[in-house]
Amino acid sequence: MIIKPEQYILDQLTATEKKVINYINEHDTELSNMSIVDIAFNTFTSPATVSRAIRKCGINGFNELRYRLMRPNENKNIVSVNEIMNKSLIEAAQTIERISIKNLLDIINTIIEYKNTKIYVFSRGPTAMVAEEFCFKLELLDYNVTHTDDPKIIEQIAKNADKNNLFIIFSFNGQTKELVTAAKYIDNINAKLIVCCCSDRSILLKYATYYLIAYKSSKIAIKEFEVTSRIPLFILSRIIIDYLVEQKSCL
User: Fold this and answer.
1) If 135 and its partner were Cys, which of 101, 147, 153, 158 is the partner (CB 3.0–4.6 Å)?
2) Which keywords describe this protein according to UniProt (predicted)?
3) CB of 86 within 8 A of CB of 61?
4) Is 61 helix (H, G, I), strand (E, B) or coil?
5) Residue 192 maps to a domain
6) Looking at residue 213, what DSSP letter applies?
7) CA atoms within 13 A of residue 135's CA, in its CB half-sphere
8) 27-76 pLDDT, tens digit each
9) Which helix (H) or strand (E) holds 64?
10) Over the stretch 126-158, which tens digit does the pLDDT of each residue have?
11) If you count DSSP H runs as helices and E runs as strands, how many of each does the chain have, helices first?
12) Which of 209, 220, 215, 207 is CA-nearest to residue 236?
């Protein structure tokens, strides 16, 4: 029996939630290969019900439950896969915890304020994928936005920056020379700059009007190229875009 709730917890479970817990306990040897959707399907419930039942029993979600089922000497492939999936879960959870609601709302309001002017988005390296998707979605929302990851173009645009334009920088470490130089130019003319990065020690923060700092994982997937996950930056991008969509629907 993998879940052994106290009687007072059992008393709080609905009949459907008890069915979920009974199923989990009866199939604990199979759960490592299953998803929360599989459990929901087999118990004729929903993933939300499964998750709620697990949490009521003091387990912080399905992923934690699978970790409890691991055995050091059993199926190392399953253990490895669970650890890999947990890495993404940690990145997402830690990033959301680090988001300042005040900063987020300031950023949303600023972007809306500059909707009828020009918005420039700068990035470098693998982070360009995040910035490109962000700009694509802003364009769909009728914003006049341009993205570039070319260092010479970044410097040229920043040198000739107009204080009536809005600038947004996506950067993983926040130390990229070209982006720091651009931030200095933007700061010199008192234009507004939004920075999304994964380091609270980023030089860019010094020049930012507003900023969001995502979680930075110490684990690098492809170590010889130092390619670190950009999932945290994608999460920041998505939250901003989703909130802009919500605001648009309220108008």
Assistant:
1) 147
2) DNA-binding, Transcription, Transcription regulation
3) no
4) coil
5) yes
6) E
7) 22
8) 888 887 788 989 999 999 999 999 999 989 888 778 778 777 665 445 55
9) helix 62-68
10) 999 999 999 999 999 999 999 999 999 999 999
11) 11, 5
12) 215
